[in-house]
Specification:
Layout lengths: L26 E6 L9 E6 L4 E5 L6 E5 L6 E4 L2 E4 L5
Antiparallel strand pairs: 1-2, 2-3, 3-4, 5-6
């Protein structure tokens, strides 16, 4: 479990795989929260078919916005900020 004080940035990474190969992985999501429900947490999604990253609202009833690789940007919700400018 990773914890941090409010306002302190964290870098997270995740590895996804499929037994039949990477081409079967179309969408992935990453949830950061203290509860499995996802409510009031941060939920990011990546759709490989259109190469977009999305940030869902804290209630999971919509999207805050999306980002397509290229220009630096941030997607923000009341629960936090997804910094899309950091690159590996």
């Amino acid at each position: 479990m990773l914890t941090s004080a409010a306002g302190v940035a964290q870098s997270l990474s995740a590895v996804y795989s499929d037994a039949d190969g990477w081409s079967n992985v179309k969408t992935v999501s990453l949830q950061v929260n203290t509860a499995a429900s996802g409510a009031n947490g941060i939920w990011a999604l990546h759709d490989r078919t259109v190469n977009n990253v999305y940030l869902a609202t804290r209630r999971r009833d919509g999207l805050v916005g999306s980002w397509h690789p290229g220009p630096a940007a941030s997607l923000c919700d009341t629960q936090g900020t997804l910094n899309c400018s950091a690159r590996r």
